[in-house]
Write a structure and sequence with these properties.
Blueprint (H helix, E strand, L loop, with lengths): L14 E4 L3 E6 L17 H8 L4 E2 L8 E7 L2 H13 L3 E9 L6 E5 L2 E3 L7 E3 L8 E10 L2 E8 L6 H8 L13 H4 L7 E9 L6 E5 L5
Length: 217
């Protein structure tokens, strides 16, 4: 893998919702969720958010190239509550992606076990021997010429799950520099993957809450 050429966007924070327990933010593509190991990778969504909200606590992450809804906690109690929801899959996430080719059918599932591709970290791979169960549901939203816009619902939360699943079935996500062939990786100026909505139980009282951010592509 080539060293990361990190040029994070300079756009201001896009806070979608705030209350006593939660901060919900629309992460831009190209910004790390948390600091990287190198000093030049210190700029990230967590650092920027803490500058405005020092009490903000990390709950989950999105890939650097993926944009969309991320939730942070404002108290340790809320962080534990949300962390358990992610761990036990008591919440739902929906993504939008533009993929290469014309996907057959209107909806379906991709059930392929995933594991780390250790010689090529941070890449992951399909492995039926040692991979962890990984399930993605998809639904066609729109068909363009040579491109299909999909709604994706991951039932598991493996690293790069959506990127690998779609690439494996022959429909890589446009702009995916990790897994797509060069022609498809350069077909868009960014990864065409966006975390559009997140539905969870609010830590204060347990009522369902859905947060959304419209896709930018």
């Amino acid at each position: 893998m080539k060293p990361l050429d990190y040029r994070p966007p300079t756009c201001p924070l896009d806070v979608l919702h705030e209350d006593a327990s939660l901060l919900v933010v629309n992460k831009p593509s190209g910004l790390l969720s948390v600091p990287g190991k190198a000093a030049e990778h210190a700029d990230c969504l967590e650092t920027r958010l803490k500058a405005a909200y020092p009490e903000a606590l990390l709950v989950h992450r999105l890939d650097m190239d993926t944009s969309g809804v991320m939730v942070f906690a404002r108290t340790r109690i809320a962080q534990r509550h949300l962390g358990l929801q992610f761990e036990r899959r008591h919440l739902s996430k929906a993504y939008v992606a533009r993929v290469w080719g014309e996907v057959e059918g209107e909806n379906g599932e991709i059930d392929l076990p995933l594991t780390s591709d250790w010689p090529n970290r941070p890449l992951q791979k399909v492995c039926h021997e040692t991979g962890k169960p990984s399930l993605t549901r998809w639904r066609v939203i729109e068909r363009e010429e040579g491109v299909t816009r999909l709604e994706l619902t991951p039932l598991t939360g493996r690293t790069h799950q959506l990127r690998i699943h779609l690439n494996t079935i022959g429909h890589p996500i446009l702009g995916d520099v990790f897994y797509a062939p060069p022609k498809i990786a350069t077909a868009a100026d960014r990864l065409q993957l966006h975390a559009q909505s997140l539905t969870l139980r609010h830590p204060d009282g347990g009522a369902p809450a859905t947060f959304t951010a419209p896709d930018p592509f």
